[in-house]
Structures are given as C-alpha cells and as structure tokens.
Amino acid sequence: MIRLSQLILLISLLLLILSNHQRAILPEMDFYDGARLPEPVQSDTTAEPFAVVSNDILYTINPIYDYQLHGVVVSFHNSDAWWDIYHHRSWQDFINVKDICVIWGDNVASGVYRKMAFKNTTWTCWATWPDSDTGRQFSMHQLSNNHLLIGDPRIREIAENVAIGDQIRINGVLASYSHSNGRFARGTSTSRTDTGNGACETIFVNDFEIVKKANPGWHKINLLAGWLAPVSFLCMMLMVFKAPVRPND
C-alpha cells in the first residue's frame, strides 16, 4: 500500500505540473463565439453615487459611464494574493476583488494573441511580442486592464473562477471610488486609447458572465491532482508510522 500511495503521489504531482501549464494556454481563435468580439460600449449613465460595505469599510462609488465589455481574458491578478502588499494591507481596498486583462476585436480574430505573452502585476497588464511584425499586428487599443469592484457575493464567486482564455461579458459602470478608512481614492480611464498611469478601467460590476470556459478538461485534472497529491501523501505517511518495526537479526 505504501508503494501504491507513492505511485499515486508521483502521478498526481506530475499531473499538477502539466495541468498548471496546459490550463493557461490560450485557445485557437475559432474556439470563441464570434471570432470578432465587439468594441466595449460606453454610454451616459443615470446612476447616482452609492455606498457599498465590504470588510466593515464603507466605500463610496461614483458612476461615470454605463459600460459593457465583451472579451477574452489573457491574464489576471487576484487582489488577495499573498504577495500583494497594496490592496488589503496598504490601501484597505477589499472591494477591488480582481484585475483582468482583456482583448477583443481584431486582436482575437487574427489569432495574434497566441504568439504573445501577457502578465498582470499588482495594477498593470503587460503584453509582449516576439518580433516587430507581431507587435504591428497587435493593437493596444483593443486591450484593457480592468479593476473589478464587486459587492455582490454571487458575482464575486463568478469573478474568482475566471481563468486565462475564458470569454467573458461584463455589465456595470465605469466609476471612481473612495473609502472611509484613511485618504484612499481611485479613478478610472474613460478611453481605450490612453496609456500609462490611470489608463486602466475601474468597473463596478452589476453582471458577470463566463460566456465560454477555456480548457475545462485541464482545469478538472488540475483540481483532481491538487486533491490527490496531499491525500496520497498523508496516506503514505500514516502507513509509514503504522508499519510494524522489524526486529534486528
């Protein structure tokens, strides 16, 4: 039984490593519903400023425009990541649950994204390409980094399950916001063509849909392997400690 547990542990660790890589591969362009995803829709809003409480902190949300975003998630950052010293500890910002970097339009239709690498840091999305031809084919005006403000637990759960390659739809408002603990305030971009600091969209999310889940099989394998690895390790340790001690000859 010990050898069986060792074998299961080894296989599950290998599957965990493999599935971590495979689940983050962006699918081919024909995977997506409507290879040419539309431009974001920004329109005048009638929404008034409102308050949201999260972690006993009162946030004031100031809507600027109604906003709808369709796109493909190419990278993301969870604000509760252990290495993120800013969102929770420094800023006391518990309503910005996640940042997602999204592409749409010709960036999806051309398939150029599959030649590129994307990465989110604490508040920025980085896009890199292997050569100048790829860089010319990719439009930075069809990419946005989005700070997602979420008060609804149901929407929060959906956002937390978003992964690289997913096609998503978001309805909400572009907004600035602040909170009652200290001097914290944050704005939003209202243009898809700006760059540098302040170029990210801050969206208070009213509705969130994962239109199409990328690499679902690899996500299931990763979940299974992540469960099997510690269980098989514990079983192996338990059997080692319970194994009878052989007397010395």
Task: List the main descriptive attributes of the protein structure presented here.
5-stranded mixed barrel, 29% helix, globular, alpha+beta, 249 residues
Sum this structure up briefly.
With 249 residues, this protein is α+β, with helices and mostly antiparallel strands. The chain has helices at residues 2-22, 86-90, 106-109, 132-137, 153-160, 216-242, and strands spanning 41-44, 50-54, 57-78, 96-103, 117-120, 125-128, 143-149, 167-179, 184-186, 201-212.
What does this structure look like?
With 249 residues, this protein is α+β, with helices and mostly antiparallel strands. It folds into 2 domains: 1-23 and 215-249; 30-214, no CATH class. The protein starts with a helix and ends in a 7-residue tail after the last helix. It is globular and about 65 Å long. Helix 1 (2-22) runs antiparallel to helix 6. The strands form 2 sheets. The chain has a 5-stranded mixed barrel. A two-stranded antiparallel ribbon has the order 5-6. The mean pLDDT is 89. Helix content is 29%, strand content 33%.
Uncertain runs are none
Helical fraction: 25-40%
Give a quick account of the main beta sheet: strands, pairing sense, barrel closure.
5 strands, mixed, barrel
Backbone CA Rg: 22 Å
Number of strands: 10
